[in-house]
Amino acid sequence: MGWQGARSALIGRTAELDRLIAVLDAADGGLAGVALLGGDAGIGKTRLVTELAERARADGFAVLVGQCAELGDALPYLPLADALRGATGELSAAIDARPVLGRLLPGGGDLGQESTSGLTQQQLFGSMLGFLSVQPVLLVLEDLHWADQSTRDLLVFLSRMLQTERVCLIGTYRTDDLHRRHPLRRVLAELKRLPSVTAVELSPLDRGEMTDYLVTLGGTDARMMGEVVDRAEGNPFYAEELLEAASDGSSITDDLAGLLLSRVELLSDAAQGVLRGAAVAGRRVDHDLLQQVSGLENLAFDDAMREIVSRGLLRLDGEYGYAFRHALLQEVVYTDLLPGERTRAHAEFARLLTLREGAAAELAHHYLAGHDLAGALAASVEAGRRAERLGAPAEAHRHFDRALGLWDRVPDAERLAGIDHVPLATRSAVAAADSGDNHRAISQLRRLPPSAEVTERLAYFLSDTNDEEGAIAAAHAAVEMAPEGPVLARALATYARALYWSERHDEVEPLATQALEVARAAGAADAETSALITLASLAALADDIPRATGLLACATAESSGNLAIDLRAIFTYARIQYEYGDLGEAAVTTDRGMRLADETGLNWSTYGTDLRFLRFLIHYVAGEWDLAERVAAGFGIRVGTPSEATLSSFALFVEVARGLPVVEERLSWLEPFWSSDALVSYMAHGLAAEHALWRGDPEAALEHVDAVLEKLSPNDPAMIRLSTTALWALADLGRASEADGFLERARFPTVIGPGSGVRGPMGPEGLAWLARAEAEWHRAHGRFDVEAWRAVVEAFDFGFVYETARSRWRLAEALLVSGDRDSALEEWQRAVKDAASLGARPLSTALEELGRRARFVSVRSNLLTSREQEVLMLVAEGLPNREIGERLFIAPKTVSVHVSNILGKLGVSSRTQAVAAARGEGLL
């Protein structure tokens, strides 16, 4: 594998390639140009030049490529000689006609001495200029950072003298090899001021581009690719080598290690020693600390650092420190150390860091690497505490986990840590949950001896994973074990929460009320907030929204001391506002929660994730789909953790409804999580079923529904939408015999559990889905019930733009069957308008088909392509070609072609006639 060998699209490099092509096109038109292409080793320069060369050959250019070598001035004009060896045809004859050029070829003589003569160089340069005027030429000089003085002189000469020749000159160089005194620096500065020179510098690829590139190389494991992307830091060659190494079970390939170490070996012995010390410190190191470890005096250390920095191995980082230019360079230098060297260096860093405040994380690392396990344990616990205070739960969990791993190997661990084993393990589990890994938290807690505190936390996290049975059992056990006071208050609040979704709903309010009383008496603010949330949720179920919002306003007024519970309170507040149709207030509350999650590092906690989804959902329901897509842009496709998979599945709402091609890719990455995560399974299978229905495959839709049915509790409100989707599929198939069972499934959550008739009314969206289930059931039995579909439209019309439009589609169909054509047309037109404003292409297609069958639109509507339809709509607005092009991101010439096609298809001769004809045909 090689970056330059990957024949996939130039991921992340199209803008840079376009700039190079512009220079080539100008040369083709008789305006010679020069492009200087810079970037770190492996960043993709050769791949770009290779692509440009293919384009040049297709345009009739001769392509000459010369490679500089790491030989200094020993062989002058080496890249030019290398390039001339590739000359054929007219260019070969032109070399024969110019003896000075011929002497650069094998057997042609030696210019090594003569090239220092001004006359000889002048003759050579003149001959080269004439040679390049013979035919169109792309001349590439690779790796100019190794160029000799004569080649640099030639580069300057050609850049200044090439004018009307059909020549494109490309020079590439490594920016990471240009130390401060490198002779090419002056040349580049001089050339970049010339109007004929285009400077292109390749920056690292971003995470999305890197992941796309790894996929083209055959990467499939999301976790492995995530690690490769992190380590490669935007460098495609590094990523390719790391992917190969990971596939072979190693850390780094020999080729990559050799490439990186070759630059280190150019340093003096003193500088190499300092760099090795920096590698032991990690990616970044403090100036004073590094000098102390090096043992060098001020002047000697400054000389060594100047050498290292000038060669681009370390860069200045802040006011008093340095950082490795690339993390892999630090890794290979560190790996190259002998075991004894590492241990001694780590011990010295640990000794020096003990004198500094706030260095617990670094200290723990050096203690562990220096085999001081006792010091590593104590420092790890302190680092975890500090990470907690800074709102970094993932880091806190990592530090606490490292301390727990050392616990049995260190005598007197409790004294060193300042905390007992069980409380430390509990804090580690809480940190894991706060970072979004509830399963890890549950696993840790289950390994601990049972106690009221541990069992209560276990019950709480089991509730977050929808393990109703496990949560109830653990919460009951916690209440039985808990002494009077804060622990009992938390256990009671968690027990009430665990029972909330169960059939034992009559027990919830007394438990929550008791929890509230005990919490207030014991001063347990977190338990008080938890109890208030449950009581507010009960009030909302009873349709007592003023009481529910009042309780939640109280619960969210001040921090409870537990950020996860604070986020749960804000989310519940926003959810109730959303479910009862107050989308504006729900948006404000959700934004508040998202800010808190972001500020405290809880973005990936259960409710940090839920708040982001709710913000997306508010945009989705309100019909603000462009904003929804903007939010969903942060829901990664290539997922590796349950939290990432959960957010990714939410993005399918808009992507399926808009018929975006990314749906299939997103589903393929979510599939590994379908068996282990009930929420991801419901979201992904449910929306995959809708996707299949839009594509005319109701059998596949039913398979998706069947795959998730057993994962949902029968009284889960999500069952209503899932059953409705199944009824849609059965109606399309005409299989009425199976419809009754799914209608019963849809009705069941309204009879048992939260939102049932026993406990209070459902929210407007749940009732709307139930109404649609009833209407689809009629359709499955061959009945187009107008009143049933009218009830669905009215139910969704609380502000759910898309579902209202989708229901109007079916209502229009039912009205047509009933013979009420005028009402059908009215409903159809409203649905068409809303579908178009949303960009809901599958729905628009279905409406177009219904319109053709009903003769609401002309059968000629399929004459225009989708792009021509877009152009026609803008022509109807009176926009000129330039503005249409800006709107659609296409060239004015392309717009002109589309307009000509539209005129021809409609049989008219002017734009005005086209608009009139289109309106008459029902195309607008």
Automatic annotation (TrEMBL):
**One annotated GO molecular function:** DNA binding
Give start and end of each HTH luxR-type domain. 857-922
- An example of a Pfam family matching this protein is AAA_16
Q: Which UniProt keywords apply?
A: ATP-binding, DNA-binding, Nucleotide-binding
Q: Is ATP-binding a UniProt keyword of this protein?
A: yes
Q: Does the keyword GTP-binding apply?
A: no
Name used for this protein in its record:
DNA-binding CsgD family transcriptional regulator
Mind giving the lineage of the organism this protein is from?
Bacteria, Bacillati, Actinomycetota, Actinomycetes, Streptosporangiales
